[in-house]
Amino acid sequence: MHLTHLVAFNIALLAAIASPGPAFLVAVKTALTSGRRAGIAVGLGLGLMAALWTAAALFGLEVVFVAFPWAYTIVKTIGALYLIWIAYGMWKGARAPLETEVKPARHAFRQGVLINLMNPKSVLFAAAVLVVIFPPDMTLAENLLVVGNHLIVEWIVYTAIAFGMSTEMVSQRYLRGKVWLDRAAASVLGALGIRLLMDR
């Protein structure tokens, strides 16, 4: 493995993080509504689980999902229902005044872990990216380096999002468009959940 492999992986990873998926939306929403500390905590949970999915892909978990499609279907269905439940809560609370109580960091961290835990496509995506970018004969140390790199990149990005989204200027703009922003985010999350549920 060479440095260029890690650079290519990080570029793909940053593009994946920036896409309007459940992890990104929940990270932004948490930082806006619950403050910087909760935003960082949810990002730590998201990053930890994403890195664990990459570790699972490196060590062959995608083979289990391919060999036992029912296991993938069960995890995928639970994940889809979880996303739809979050979307429903966002939509329902769109017109409610912004809660002033800050979400406890441990709750935000747990939510971050659950968001990415309930998305089994993460391991398949990671496996596809890893196969394309990295050589097949990597050592254990190199595999652990990839996982550690993934974890650090995720934590840096989500911490930056938490700092950026929790500033007063951004928060005020969010408050002005809260109803539409919350419902747009809920629509995206709901659509992702339905797509995951219906995908064969």
Automatic annotation (TrEMBL):
<feature type="transmembrane region" description="Helical">
    <location>
        <begin position="112"/>
        <end position="134"/>
    </location>
</feature>
<dbReference type="InterPro" id="IPR001123">
    <property type="entry name" value="LeuE-type"/>
</dbReference>
<protein>
    <submittedName>
        <fullName>Threonine/homoserine/homoserine lactone efflux protein</fullName>
    </submittedName>
</protein>
<keyword id="KW-1133">Transmembrane helix</keyword>
<keyword id="KW-0472">Membrane</keyword>
<dbReference type="Pfam" id="PF01810">
    <property type="entry name" value="LysE"/>
</dbReference>
<feature type="transmembrane region" description="Helical">
    <location>
        <begin position="146"/>
        <end position="167"/>
    </location>
</feature>
<keyword id="KW-1003">Cell membrane</keyword>
<feature type="transmembrane region" description="Helical">
    <location>
        <begin position="67"/>
        <end position="91"/>
    </location>
</feature>
<keyword id="KW-0812">Transmembrane</keyword>
<dbReference type="GO" id="GO:0005886">
    <property type="term" value="C:plasma membrane"/>
</dbReference>
<feature type="transmembrane region" description="Helical">
    <location>
        <begin position="6"/>
        <end position="28"/>
    </location>
</feature>
<feature type="transmembrane region" description="Helical">
    <location>
        <begin position="40"/>
        <end position="61"/>
    </location>
</feature>
<dbReference type="GO" id="GO:0015171">
    <property type="term" value="F:amino acid transmembrane transporter activity"/>
</dbReference>
